[in-house]
Amino acid sequence: LRRKWLCLIVTYEMNKQYTITWYVISHLMNFCDAILTLYAVSNGIEEANPVMAWALSISPALFLSVKFFVFGCAVHFVALKRPALLMYVGLLFMTVLCWHVSFWLFGLGH
């Protein structure tokens, strides 16, 4: 019985670390996406998301505020309700980051 409780505690702590790690990665990838989006837009690329394009047309500060607020709420909700999905959020934003970098490396969109 004692060993079973120890296993449960270790599993809980590992799951907590897993969730925190992907939570932080997701936010870092979102931050990088925001910065690289501003860079791309300043070089003539259009924002694909119509809501974010509207926010960006008003000001970059509004764009960043909306992006960080909406993403922060969404990721927090996922972390509370379905923490295992955070890995997929982080991986999706890593893919977006690779897409941004490809524009920079290969001069796409100019």
List keywords for this structure.
110 residues, mainly alpha, 85% helix
Chain-wise SSE layout:
Layout: H1 2-42, H2 50-58, H3 60-81, H4 86-106
Task: Please explain how this structure is put together.
The protein is an all-alpha fold. Helix content is 85%, strand content 0%. It is built from four helices and no strands. Helix 1 runs antiparallel to helix 3 and helix 1 runs parallel beside helix 4. The longest helix has 41 residues. The model has no long low-confidence stretch (mean pLDDT 85).
Termini Cα gap? 65 Å
Q: Give the overall average pLDDT.
A: 85
- List low-confidence stretches: none
* Radius of gyration from CA coordinates: 18 Å
Brief characterization of the structure:
The protein has 4 helices and no strands. The protein is mainly α and 110 residues long.
